[in-house]
Amino acid sequence: MFKSAKKMLSLAAGVAIGLSAASSAWSASSLEEVMKERGLTQKDLLAAAKTYVPTGGRDEYIVFASGGQSGQVIVYGIPSMRILKYIAVFTPEPWQGYGFDEESKAVLAMGRIHGKDITFGDTHHPAFSEADGEYDGKYLFINDKANPRIAVIDLHDFETKQIVVNPIMKSEHGGAFVTPNTEYVIEAAQYATPHENIFVPLEEFNDKYRGAITYWKFDKKKGRIDESQSFSVELPPYSQDLSDAGKGPSYGWSFTNSFCSERYVGGIERGRPPFEAGCSSKDTDYLHVVNWKKGEELVKAGKAETVNGHKVISMKTAVANNMLYLVPEPKSPHGVDVSPDGKFMIVSGKLDSHAWVYSFDKIMKAAEAKKFEGKDPYGIPIIAMKDALHKQVNVGIGPLHTQYDKAGSCTVYTSIYVDSMVTKWDYCEGKVLDQMPVHYNIGHLMAMEGDSVSPDGKYLVALNKLAIDRFNPVGPLHPQNHQLIDISGKKMQLLYDMPLPLGEPHYAVAIRADKLKPGVRYKSGWNSRTDSRSPFKTRAGREKTVRTPGKVEVFGTLIRSHINPEIIEVTEGDEVIIHLTNLERAQDETHGFAMYGGNVNLSVEPGKTATAKFQADRAGVFPYYCTEFCSALHLEMQGYMLVQPKGYKAKEGGMVEGVKYTEADYNKQVKTNVDTQAVINSVVAFITSHNYKDFPTVVALVEDATDQLGFAEEAKKKSEAAAAKKDWQNAMLWANQWWQYQVKTADMGLRAKTFLEQNNAKKIK
Ligand code: RUQ
Ligand code: CUA
Question: Is the CB of 591 under 6 A from ligand 2?
């Protein structure tokens, strides 16, 4: 703990000296020596130089990767591959208080299935909101495969705002994919089931089990999915897989592939060959080509049926209105990826060594001429492969997903699962350009802004399923391996391996960092999950505890370094509701709130109001405290909830003080405070004599320091008032509080001063 701000100054100087001594020792060894000592090659150094982001530096791209079974989203930077955040989505996450405060519990509750809490998610495909086919940096969507759901994350604060449950599916994989103006978020089923929530025997699979694609209407103004305006298209019980939205000439259409169009149902215990045998016997499966614009019109015209309260366009209606076609695609396909210009779709078959390039133009010509090779068992017209194909290229064994290079080029990259490599090829001409081995076994791959109409190229990330022996061993459950590849040159170059230890990151999307403009604080008293002023917002000085029979409701505040109230008295059996507002305006001054014995844990960012609700079901003493190391007096940011037994009567007599203070104690403290104020004044003089207003970081620190100094002034007044009454006990305690605020002021001021010095601020006076 700091004794005075002066000490803090000398401490800071000492740290600075220590650092410079260490760095000179480090710079004594030459680059050659470091290479030799660490066994690095020239190539390693080049790769390091391409990925290294010096201290304080920022990344050029921000990646949002699926967190797989963790039900979260992983955020990291490129090229540094530094992990920045895990966004809690489908799963409770204590650091963010997600699933602990009432506000976020309400979001998780939206994701209940038939009234049951689902506290995990199997996230697969994140997608950014788009405007004219460009990532606009406003929202991120992600799906849950296990329980068909889509989540909406607001990139203003990186928080999950909404979860919608698919009303007809029981399994999905092909979400989330967005249309070019985020009109819809696409979600395609995977394992066919009856759309109704009823039992249907497997013997009726062909007739009663169904696939589907849901088009979730996104309300850009509200930043929420509008379930009432969303609809689905009924599909055959083929296992629909990934999807992609058309753009440019193919705008208004979407593409979804499928596997197991054999409609095979396994059943080892019934003596049947397993699913995998029957689902891979045909040479081709079907690409579903759907006109969602037409679908939208049909719904408006009342041509949809209602299933489980949701609008569904039947296959019959879809076919009659020329909005649904099938095109054969290579065996067990996985990805379908539309080219940035919207003219081509690339599909690869996992059990084939080719990537197939389809021409949207050809598909439309065949559809318009009604040139079909037949119909599937559900009456959906099938366009012959030869009438839809542009090129077919041998890219390697087990091709999965394709990403497009810079806009205007014909270069693409396809992940090759079985061969564990990336194939770079030209889809206009149909020839392979380069191949690079990656570690085992690549699933998706991702290029910068790769799903937009103007991809940037530059970097590619291989999202590998297995790490095996790549990293230090951590037991039988291994991390995944994201490999960063430089694709700016003719040949691909591997730069970096990053272990991702959270779940299987199936897919990821990367956006230019400068497109993201997240806030640093909430408007005061904010419910961040509904994006509105919390009715429980509490201002400084308005803290209160409201008691009604059987219930105690606390309206409290948090600010360095105290929780107001510090004592909460309740009676055994009471329902306790604690609303806490973080009064801080300073960047990164989050306070936490945890309490013994009740699963109470909040994260309250500057401006936020969060609520804990629980039953005080046993008498006892329950300490609570702030969980974020927010200041030097953080450990003192504490309090007690006293749960009194029913019928308890308070005893006579006041608190017994641990220490009795004298006038001398008071005078000594005042002297310290006066000295501290001198230090603050000198720091203030330094700051104001420089062009600090040119540095937003410093402006924020100065604002914060000014706040703290205001609190110091109030405490000073209370201290002086007590001293005037010769109440040395209170005079001393308030003098100490006055000093606490000064220390916080000095801390901010010194941070601002250091920042100005390090950033060569100019003297103005
Ligand atoms: S997955 S490895 Cu998109 Cu779920 Cu392909
Ligand atoms: Cu607030 Cu520690």
Answer: yes
What is the gyration radius of the CA atoms in the chain, in angstroms? 31
Residues 560 and 635 reside in one and the same domain: yes
The ligand 2 atom at the shortest distance from the C-alpha of residue 629 is: 2
Q: For residue 705, report the distance from its CA to the centre of ligand 2, in Å.
A: 17
In a domain, 726, yes or no: yes
Residues 669 and 633 in one domain: no
User: For 333-378, what is each residue's pLDDT tens digit?
Assistant: 888 999 999 999 999 988 889 999 999 999 999 999 999 999 999 9
| Closest-CA residue to 149 (of 112, 181, 180) | 112
Largest CA distance in the chain: 101
> At which of 615, 644, 673 does a domain end?
644
Q: Both 632 and 676 in a single domain?
A: no
* Residue 372 φ then ψ, to 5°: -115, 150
Q: Please state the pTM of the whole predicted model.
A: 0.91
Mean pLDDT score of the chain, rounded to an integer? 93
Contact indicator for 82, 61 with CB cutoff of 8 Å: no
Pair 631, 672 in one domain? no
pLDDT, tens digit (0-9, with 9 covering 90-100), for 508-545: 999 999 999 999 999 999 999 999 999 999 998 899 99
Tell me: do 618 and 679 sit in the same domain: no
Task: Give residue 428's identity as a one-letter amino acid code.
Answer: C
| Ligand with minimal distance to 175 CA | 1
Per-residue pLDDT of 605-662, as tens digits, reads 999 999 999 999 999 999 999 999 998 889 999 999 999 999 999 887 788 888 999 9
Which residues have a Cβ under 8 Å from the Cβ of 56 and sit 6 or more positions away? Answer: none
Cα of 256 from ligand 1 centre, angstroms: 13
Q: Is residue 513 assigned to a domain?
A: no
Choice from 337, 444, 461, 509 to test ligand 1 binding pocket (greatest atom count within 8 A of CB): 444
Pick the ligand that lies closest to the CA of residue 629.
2
The tally of domains found in the chain comes to 3
Q: How far is the CA of 502 from the centre of ligand 1 (A)?
A: 16
Same domain, residue pair 669 and 752: yes
Task: State the amino acid at position 488 in one-letter form.
Answer: S
Asked if the structure places residue 713 within a domain, the reply is: yes
14 lies in a domain? yes
In this predicted structure, the answer to whether residue 563 has a pLDDT above a threshold of 80 is yes
124 ligand 1 Cβ < 6 A: yes
Q: Which ligand is nearest the CA of 177, by number?
A: 1
CB 568 within 8 A of CB 576: yes
Residue located nearest, by CA, to atom 1 of ligand 2: 591
- Ligand closest to the CA atom of residue 632: 2
Ligand nearest to the CA of 634: 2
Counting atoms of ligand 1 from 1, which one is nearest the CA of 415? 2
**Token couple for 580:** 């806490």
Please tell me the distance between residue 505's alpha carbon and the centre of ligand 1 in angstroms.
9
How far does residue 87's CA lie from ligand 2's centre (Å)?
22
Return the ∠ at Cα 114 (arms to 113 and 119), rounded to 5°.
30
- Establish whether residue 350 lines the binding site of ligand 1, counting it when its CB lies within 6 angstroms of any ligand atom: no
Pairwise CA distance, residues 424 & 435, whole Å: 6
Please identify, by atom number, the ligand 1 atom nearest to the C-alpha of residue 417.
Answer: 2
Say whether both 608 and 669 belong to one domain. no
Q: Are 255 and 335 in contact (CB under 8 A)?
A: no
**228 C-alpha to ligand 1 centroid (Å):** 29
Q: What is the pLDDT of residues 294-308, one digit of tens each?
A: 999 999 999 999 999
Q: Which atom of ligand 2 is nearest to the CA of 591?
A: 1
Domain span holding position 683: 663-764
Q: In whole angstroms, give the CA distance from residue 335 to residue 403.
A: 10
316 CA to centre of ligand 2 in angstroms: 61
> Is there an atom of ligand 1 within 6 Å of 334 CB?
yes
Q: Specify whether 579 is located in the same domain as 549.
A: yes
> Does the pLDDT value for residue 4 go beyond 70?
no
Residue 659's contacts (CB-CB under 8 Å, 6 or more residues apart) are none
Counting atoms of ligand 2 from 1, which one is nearest the CA of 630?
A: 2
